[in-house]
Design a protein that fits this description.
Helix 7 packs parallel to helix 8. This protein has 9 helices and 17 strands. The chain has 339 residues and is an alpha/beta fold. It folds into 2 domains: 262 residues, 3-Layer(bba) Sandwich (Glucose Oxidase, domain 1), CATH 3.50.30; 25 residues, no CATH class. It has a 9-stranded mixed beta sheet, with helices on both faces. The chain is 22% helix and 18% strand. Bound molecules: acetylphosphate. Acetylphosphate (UVW) binds next to loops.
Length: 339
């Protein structure tokens, strides 16, 4: 069983024309036709735009903490929070509880007079507030920096480009672009498109300029709509209605040396665009594959945005590392902004 035409599920299969070298990189296959960061930080780089952030950027960001204010941007990890319909709800179990011990448990023999509670969750790593790593998305069998898609397997996970390369990353200056506030709406209209000109307009309106290595957060306000939905069908339709970026924003991100991009939506980009796009998911393709620029999704930006509007400061220190899961292609997290 195989296929050799995109979107074709025929039983025939022709081996691809490309080969894969000892480093796991495609030879003679896809290379980005336009702007890209392949090779910019070395032929075998696996951190992409995280290379834009160094001690100078982190020290500068630390100076933005003036009032001691802290804002979490994490969704709750439970069945009620939004997640893409293909991803199961998180499950939260208890392994042992003090109540069991009080009622009488054999483990009390080991530690008479003491009790403890242990719990665990099972969840999709992309099933909550999350980072998409480079192993999450491929174009034409290829990942960031030319690594072959076949390096990510169900048995072993991401042999290259895993989230373990990022476990000390996403710490630096965050800049919020409050697009909903710019337009004076609770949330951007369903399936509305955000282009690079609107991003520049928002920066100008907020009186903030980007610096190399910034982590940009985009607020559409669309997360607030989730709370108002009643039925399963409304919740499924919600994802198709997602407002977001269109493809000219990839060049904007490159030009501004943005190190990571996160938004309060499921996929950052508009999922049902009306403007013709040259690629199916141009932001995922352009950022994750061509630029090596990680994407954060379902960040709850409401409290932070309210405070930025209040004090007029749209820059802050951001601390948002992923979980240290070897060979993972994404990670949930609790991103923290400090002002
Ligand atoms: C979508 O694009 C729907 O989201 P993700 O990047 O989490 O796959």
């Amino acid at each position: 069983m195989g296929r050799n035409v995109p979107g074709d599920f025929a039983t025939r299969w022709t081996p691809p024309a490309y080969t894969v070298d000892d480093d796991g990189k495609v030879v003679g296959g896809y290379t980005p036709p336009g702007l890209n960061n392949w090779g910019r930080w070395g032929a075998n780089d696996q951190r992409g735009t995280q290379n834009l952030v160094g001690p100078a950027q982190i020290a500068r960001a630390a100076g933005l903490v003036r009032d001691g204010k802290v804002f979490s941007m994490a969704l709750t990890i439970d069945a009620d929070a939004p997640r893409f319909p293909t991803r199961p709800a998180p499950q939260h179990y208890f392994l042992s509880t003090g109540a069991d011990a009080v009622a009488g448990s054999p483990v009390q023999i080991a530690m008479p007079g003491y009790q403890w509670n242990d719990d665990m969750i099972t969840m999709a790593l992309q099933g909550s507030t999350q980072w998409d790593g480079f192993g999450h998305f491929m174009a034409h069998d290829t990942m960031y920096n030319g690594y072959w898609a076949g390096n990510v397997t169900a048995a072993g996970g991401a042999a290259v480009l895993g989230m373990e390369h990022m476990y000390e990353s996403f710490i630096g200056r965050g800049v919020l672009l409050d697009l909903a506030r710019l337009r004076g709406v609770e949330w951007l209209p369903e399936a509305s498109e955000v282009n690079a000109a609107m991003l520049d307009e928002c920066l100008a309106a907020q009186g903030v300029a980007l610096e190399t290595g910034d982590i940009v957060l985009l607020r559409t306000g669309f997360l607030q709509k989730w709370e108002r939905l009643q039925t399963f069908d409304e919740r499924v339709a919600y994802f198709g209605d997602t407002p977001g970026l269109i493809e000219d924003c990839v060049e904007w991100l490159y030009r501004n040396d943005v190190s990571a991009l996160a938004a309060d939506t499921v996929g950052i980009e508009v999922l049902a665009p009306t403007t013709p796009q040259s690629r199916v998911l141009p932001i995922h393709h352009g950022c994750l594959v061509d630029l090596g620029l990680p994407l954060g999704e379902f960040w709850d930006l409401e409290a932070l945005a309210a405070d930025c509007a209040d004090d007029g400061r749209y820059e802050f220190m951001l601390v948002a590392p992923p979980l240290r899961v070897p060979h993972a292609v994404g990670s949930p997290l609790n991103p923290i902004a400090m002002k």
